[in-house]
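Lab notebook, design round three. We kept the backbone fixed and only want residue identities now. Task for the bench partner: fill in a sequence for the structure below.
Input structure tokens:
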């Protein structure tokens, strides 16, 4: 069996997205030349890495799978400084997989897809512009202020509640690995 690498990691991302967007995942699998069995096997191997006693932890886990990051940025979030490590994701060339961690190789605080630095952001003017897989948590939060973060149903899932002034309703955007999956009325 080939070593676990960036190609298999993309399948791990797709595995969680398949719960909400199976049609988009099927299309992505065709693009990658991968099968559903390969997707399940990649996820099984990733879970073994996450829970294995001898597997590297923190950012070292991602470096072992994805190689050196494309870039490392020091970021301030409130009073905290953290490192943002970014890797390209060939399936989504305008996005990067971001791992936020404590400085100096510390614990991972967050891991998700973000817009690549310099890549154009989508135009988000109304909820009709929220097309699955077109935007990230941060982009929706900025476009539909004030947005309220809500607890997700799993560690790789996020939700944002926001107002829809045109309809006079609230909506909830659902994300997996930071990428929009669907929007529903609250």
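Proposed sequence:
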């Amino acid at each position: 069996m080939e070593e676990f690498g960036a190609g298999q990691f993309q399948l791990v991302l797709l595995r969680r997205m398949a719960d909400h967007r199976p049609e988009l995942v099927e299309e992505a699998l065709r693009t990658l030349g991968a099968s559903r069995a390969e997707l399940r096997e990649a996820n099984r191997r990733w879970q073994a890495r996450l829970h294995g006693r001898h597997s590297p932890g923190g950012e070292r886990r991602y470096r072992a799978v994805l190689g050196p990051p494309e870039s490392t940025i020091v970021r301030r979030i409130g009073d905290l400084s953290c490192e943002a490590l970014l890797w390209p994701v060939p399936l989504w060339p305008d996005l990067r997989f971001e791992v936020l961690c404590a400085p100096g190789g510390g614990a991972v605080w967050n891991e998700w897809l973000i817009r690549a630095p310099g890549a154009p952001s989508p135009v988000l003017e109304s909820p009709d512009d929220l097309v699955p897989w077109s935007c990230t948590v941060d982009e929706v939060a900025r476009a539909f202020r004030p947005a309220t973060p809500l607890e997700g149903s799993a560690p790789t899932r996020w939700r944002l509640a926001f107002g829809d002034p045109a309809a006079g309703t609230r909506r909830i955007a659902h994300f997996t690995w930071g990428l929009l999956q669907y929007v529903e009325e609250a």
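Keep this in mind before ordering anything: The first helix runs from residue 6 to 17.
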